Amino acid sequence: MSHNVCVYPGSFDPVTKGHMDIITRAAKLFPEVVVAVLINPAKAGSFTVEKRLNMLRKACAHLENVRVDHFDGLLVDYMHKTGAKVVVRGLRAVSDFENEFQMAQVNHQMAPDVETLFMMTSPECAYLSSSVVREIARFDGDISDFVPPCILEDVKNTLTGNNQ
Ligand code: ADP
Fold first, then answer.
1. Spatial CA neighbour of 108 closest among 129, 89, 91, 93
2. Model-level pTM greater than 0.85?
3. Hey, whose CA ends up nearest to atom 16 of ligand 1?
4. Is the pLDDT of residue 48 over 80?
5. Separation of CA 10 and ligand 1 centre (Å)
């Protein structure tokens, strides 16, 4: 990997159209984008890591310069291991700012060679989050506006089926 690679880390539990908006825009700016699912043993998530990776791979299949990976531990260690220099994060409301600001500062302290870039949400995705999708899907609401069409059934089956 090189300076031309950016890493978009997150839980993606599950990937939403908001995430896809950021991924698609980042893929126009960088020759290579790595979407990296954080494995957090303290936070099991609603979807297994395997399912999250599968859904991301399906949703990004049409984007040639995007690949999907996973990591555990510290993001800065993953950045150093892979040699990537840029982290991309998305910002929705002001409420995102404080957490993102703190994380970027701490990461900068630990790894001054890694830069965090923020992309503002597109207005039509501003209200969208994985937790909103999970809530609506659990009660069998219509999530087709919120997740990529190719993963719609995966999300519904996991959240409303017997396998939850
Ligand atoms: P995390 O648990 O790390 O916040 P998420 O999967 O919730 O992981 O989000 C990953 C990144 O995508 C974060 O930077 C988050 O702010 C951003 N993001 C999530 N939803 C949207 C959206 N609708 N528009 C723009 N950015 C978003």
1. 89
2. yes
3. 90
4. yes
5. 7
